[in-house]
Amino acid sequence: MENLYGITRFNLEKYFISINEKKFKAEQIYDWIYIKRIQNFDDMRNVKKEVINKLKEKYSLEKINIIKKEEDIGVKKYLFELDDKNKVEAVIMFHEYGNSLCISTQVGCNMGCLFCESGKLKCVRNLKTFEMIEQILLVESDINDRISHIVLMGIGEPFDNYDNVMDFIKIVNDKKGIDIGARHITVSTCGIIPKIEKFMNEKMQVNLAISLHAANDELRNRLMPINKVYNLDKLIDIIKKYIKKTNRRVTFEYVMIKDINDSKKHALELVELLKGINCYVNLIPYNETSNSKYSRSETGKILEFYDIMKKNNIQSTIRKEFGNNVTAACGQLRANN
Ligand code: SAH
After folding, report:
1. What is the pLDDT of residue 229?
2. 74, 217: one domain
3. Atom of ligand 1 nearest to the CA of 285
4. What is the domain count for the chain?
5. Ligand 1, atom 4: nearest CA belongs to which residue?
6. Is the CB of 178 under 6 A from ligand 1?
7. Residue 113 C-alpha to ligand 1 middle, in angstroms?
């Protein structure tokens, strides 16, 4: 049985056509589950009993479960348990501009970035589309408010779960579905080039963020094993093509780790790498994890780095920090559990 929350409207239309029903029924069903937010098929009052029975045979409306919540000023973190007892997490951040939810895309991660908690446990499996959608539905219901922004920056590598993530984006972006604008959705990748290339041809107006964290191959190889497969030359090359094709600005994430990648020399290398590229750099103070050997760059270092970016006309920001008390770095809630 499939879960209805993982079915795009287009695929639901195909299903209705296959059972000789009108395809607009898909829109009716979406209205019940995403606008009215009913929990049972029997509550779909304008749908014939016969159709409801067919839907019940093919689809379920089962939800994943919230098993733990942690709260701090401006942030709330959730641990979910899936059907097979695996656990993933999501974090909501309450900004002035809206509520931004960071969701997980895999149970664990295979990318093995040295500083990241998510990769300590290998990827057990990809999340199904409905398991990503339900993170949104459950959090919206918990906070009794709408989510305005989605970032795919929780546990997992979204481009390692490409097809499910694309269906997820379609449902989230669908005006008749969850209805969050494409420009309010950000996919973050460590740099899987063939998937960046594929993504560039999807014609989605979704934001792309690249986890860079180092501007030379020697260091990036060390921090992010993916760089041994797709090095900086190749990465920058595809990003240039992406920008040309989509006419969209790309974000580079740069986690600031003490004495690892935060010197003046590193900043100048970054300037050199990114000059002339329509991009934006997000400097992220490293979130120290309980079992990590790395620490966060000193504030002075971060400001100095930021100044070098600014002086060289590379647009950048220092990520506002929250959630230090709620183990908000990727994978921490799960790891501690
Ligand atoms: N796999 C994807 C998305 C998930 S990670 C990617 O690599 O982009 C989201 C971001 O958090 C990445 O930039 C990742 O490198 C960063 N990150 C991981 N651990 C962190 C930590 N302890 N502190 C700050 N950022 C961290």
Report:
1. 98
2. yes
3. 24
4. 2
5. 153
6. no
7. 8
How many other CB atoms are there within 10 angstroms of residue 221's CB atom?
15
Catalytic positions are: 89, 330
Q: Phi/psi at 69 (nearest 5 deg)?
A: -135, 145
Query: Could you tell which of 211, 287, 290 is best to mutate to test the pocket of ligand 1, judged by most ligand atoms within 8 Å of the CB?
Result: 211
SS3 assignment, position 164: helix
Pick from 60, 5, 62, 24: nearest CA to 15: 24
> What are the CB-based long-range contacts (under 8 Å, 24+) for 93-96?
93/322, 93/323, 95/149
Question: What is the predicted pLDDT for the residue at 117?
Answer: 86
Of the candidates 34, 47, 128, the residue with the CA atom closest to the CA atom of residue 80? 128
* 297: its two tokens: 């760059």
User: Using CA positions, which residue lies closest to atom 12 of ligand 1?
Assistant: 211
Q: Domain of residue 40: give its range.
A: 2-60
Neighbours of 210 (CB within 10 A): 22
Q: Which residues of the chain have pLDDT under 50?
A: none
284 and 235 both lie in a single domain = yes
- Do 54 and 177 share a structural domain? no
Would you state the pLDDT for residue 202? 95
Q: Are residues 128 and 219 in the same domain?
A: yes
Query: 13-48 burial, b for 16+ CB within 10 Å, e for fewer?
Result: bebbeeeebeeebbeebbebbbeeeeeebeebeebe
